[in-house]
Specification:
alpha+beta; GCC-box Binding Domain; 2 domains; two-stranded antiparallel sheet
Length: 202
């Protein structure tokens, strides 16, 4: 313990724990991927300047290059020492407040992404619907598609509220079944994004 020393990270007045950082920032430093250590990205300036200095804007996404916390989400320390997920900071400052009871969903499935055009307010239920990968138990390798005993493919969509699947028909090819399942899943997600339609899922 480095007694009587203050964390060297900007705007943090917590007591230093190791490597000149408080416990919170030290753990963040340890969890950050090699080459993206928090201390190497130390930037001075306004809150906005510090934030955008850690964003790499590409043709496909705006990638957060600063500290990364659990589950792969970018983490940012705003003025006043408040820790916030990077994509939430970007959305609030560029798109507006997040509606009560809603969370942000990455449409692009890139958890480091902070482009507000790739984010949408959604319920926790809807966020679970928008998983990128199918279950590891899937025998078809395509989400929402199961093979029938006859060798054809059934498309289905998961109704998260009741933990059940809706059958959407049987198709000759796996591609057809996957396309139908994806479209239906997206419709369910869009309903979860709009508070005015949530009563339809009750």
């Amino acid at each position: 313990m480095q007694r009587d020393k203050i964390c060297k990270i900007e705007n943090c007045d917590r007591q230093a724990f190791s490597r000149g950082m408080c416990t919170c920032h030290y753990q963040r430093w340890r969890n950050s991927p090699e080459g993206e250590r928090l201390t190497k990205r130390h930037v001075k300036g306004t809150e906005e300047e510090r934030f955008w200095a850690r964003v790499d804007k590409t043709d496909t996404c705006w990638n957060w290059t600063g500290a990364v916390m659990g589950w792969g989400y970018g983490h940012f320390t705003a003025d006043g020492g408040k820790d916030i997920r990077a994509h939430r900071w970007a959305y609030v400052h560029l798109a507006g407040p997040i509606p009560d009871g809603m969370m942000l969903d990455h449409k692009c499935h890139n958890r480091r992404g902070v482009n507000p055009d790739h984010l949408r307010p959604i319920t926790s239920r809807g966020n679970n619907l928008n998983r990128e990968r199918c279950s590891p138990r899937s025998k078809t390798g395509r989400r929402g598609v199961v093979q029938t005993p006859s060798g054809r493919y059934r498309a289905q969509a998961r109704f998260v509220k009741y933990g059940k699947y809706l059958s959407l028909g049987v198709f000759d090819t796996i591609e057809e079944a996957a396309w139908v399942s994806e479209r239906a899943q997206e419709e369910l997600i869009e309903m979860e994004c709009c508070p005015d339609t949530l009563h339809l899922l009750q």
